[in-house]
Amino acid sequence: MAAFKTLDDLGDVTGKVALVRVDLNLPMADGRATDLTRANAVAPTILELADAGAKVLLLAHFGRPKGERHSTLSLSLIQGEMERVLGREIMFIPEVSGPVAEQAVGIMRAGDIGLLENTRFWPGEEKNDPAFAQGIAAIGDFYVNDAFSAAHRAHASTEGLAHLLPAYAGRAMEKELNALEAALGSPQTPVAAVVGGAKVSTKLAVLENLVGKVQHLIIGGGMANTFLAARGVDVGKSLCEHDLTGTAEAIMEAADKSGCTVHLPYDVVVATEFAANPASLRICNVHEVAPDEMILDVGPQAVEALGDVLKTCRTLVWNGPMGAFEIVPFDAATVGLAKTAAALSVEGSLTSVAGGGDTVAALNHAGVAGDFTYISTAGGAFLEWMEGKVLPGVAALEA
Hints:
Layout: E1 17-21, E2 28-29, E3 32-33, H1 37-51, E4 55-59, H2 79-86, E5 91-93, H3 98-107, E6 113-116, H4 123-126, H5 130-137, E7 142-145, E8 167-169, H6 171-185, E9 191-195, H7 204-210, E10 216-219, H8 221-230, H9 245-257, E11 261-263, E12 267-271, E13 282-285, E14 294-298, H10 300-311, E15 315-319, H11 332-346, E16 351-355, H12 357-365, E17 374-376, H13 380-386, H14 392-395
Parallel strand pairs: 1-4, 1-7, 4-6, 5-6, 7-8, 9-10, 9-15, 10-11, 15-16, 16-17
Antiparallel strand pairs: 2-3, 12-13, 12-14
Helix pairs in contact: 1-2, 8-9, 10-11
């Protein structure tokens, strides 16, 4: 990964205007944020800049207003939440450029924090319109991107501004990029990847990229059934993309050529209905699945063997659950393997990086999220990074 500037490269910022791109797309219910993870993630950057005497202007999007103003998607709705997270007063500014924004910046003092309106209220944001970006840049002295989760979008506030002002990575972005570099950029080998989830179709590009980069590819979730079917296993009534068995076959051949071992379950947890603790629950060899049964989790023997694989590895990238973890007892494989990975991370023998919505939920469910080396809260951006794509918001920061 090319070098990027961080807040450590800033000189004296007293009285200077920092345009800081953050992710404040918080889940809301009854006018309150139900999860403050994203707000907490960007707080260190905001406070560091404010404490250094900068005038901090926060740029963010909220929902999908498609270039029009909607009162229900105004960032003024989360002003109070941000004030609580930061422990500071915030000035809400109902524009992102022009006279109103300039006037607000004029009355701000060094160390003050302002929250600009939802960038997506203007069509120029998602079009990455140079004139729109220049309008925002005109009110700032330098640009900080602390929103990795929006880095896969080439929008005015995530990419355009980085070309118009001196650009820096915020603390959350810096942490994320360093973790990703350690996971797939220049990792310690051997590297294992756990890829789970319901469908192969949503993770095709991820799998194709990983087989050339990792030594062990562990496939779980519903997508494992498609790979088992490709190997000639009768998966009964299991969730399976039978039309993609040829693709699964090609991925396994590519893995073979590049010296990557693909690990599929050989014992599985099956049931005839998808419900909590069903009477029909049993554990069997993959070749013994009955026509009316569904594979709903990886079996205990396979989990133990996979744990042994992780013990031989130095780096782990994890995306997606091993089974239908939302319902007990089909969470056993995800919890078991996550606990092994967490223990190895704590003792320092494994660098573990995990990301994606379901993944974070699964690791929280297993009670081990805090023990992984790094957990990315980004969804789409994390997946695109795993696919080996260039993320515009990151590329624009590279010095």
